[in-house]
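Chapter summary example.
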Amino acid sequence: MARLLRSLIFVPGNNLRFLEKAKTLLGDIVCFDLEDSVPLNEKDSARNLIKKALTKRSEYRAEVYVRTNSPVSGLIPDDLRQIVQKGIDGIVIPKVNNVKEFKKIEKLLVALEKKRKLKPIELIPSIESAQGVVNAYNIASSSKRASFVVFGVFDLLNDMGIEYTKQADGAKHARAKIPLDAKAAGKYAMDAIWQDLNDETGLEQDCIIGRNLGYVGKSTIHPNQISAVHRIFHPTKHEVEWAEKVCQAYVKSTKKNKGATVVEGKMIDEVHFKRAKALLDSVRDI
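The structure predicted for these 286 residues follows.
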């Protein structure tokens, strides 16, 4: 289904200035971070800052996600209690090792949504360990909430005891496997970050490799990386054609004073229309 998933940029949740700046970012997803970029003694502060930022969701141009802490940290219940509210589009769970971990978190999310009368929130697994790579297909296919999976190369290499290089030789098999597993599960895959902020040529080459492996977009850590990522992960012909169908059908439906409609057996509502329109706008901007 037509949707812009070219870039996901991580924004430290403990930095108010960065959270404010994220309102203007042109990434497809801004992801407020509670994990790696936030020291343990600042977790509570970061949760509060993110909670306040979510109340201003309309001021952000991109979709807004939050990355929690990892399942093994024991901090996810506290994270979810603070961040699950109106204004959040999705939640990224880092270092998911298996389906059991992921479904346990989904159960907590469902309970909070029911209590707070919220619509279902996307729940995105990040694959960052040897066990996670082996279980990637099962994880990706375990929940309808997971429309895509994220690949995390640095923690995978650490788990394998392999030193990082720009070529990430030790992660080649895992990097190739994850988009295959995601596709088999009917999901998208988001590639890992490029660490060197001064090497734009390397970033572009890495994006090309990722796109050729089947990734639809890339995680980023700095606003300056977004334009290069968007240039390479442009929408496919099939995605553009689908977006056109969605927009045409939804506009026709609204003219008849109807909201949701159906396109090729799939329910289409305002959210799908906005995503499809954004995709078409991005193509016109190229």
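To summarize the output: Residues 97 and 132 are 4 Å apart (CA to CA).
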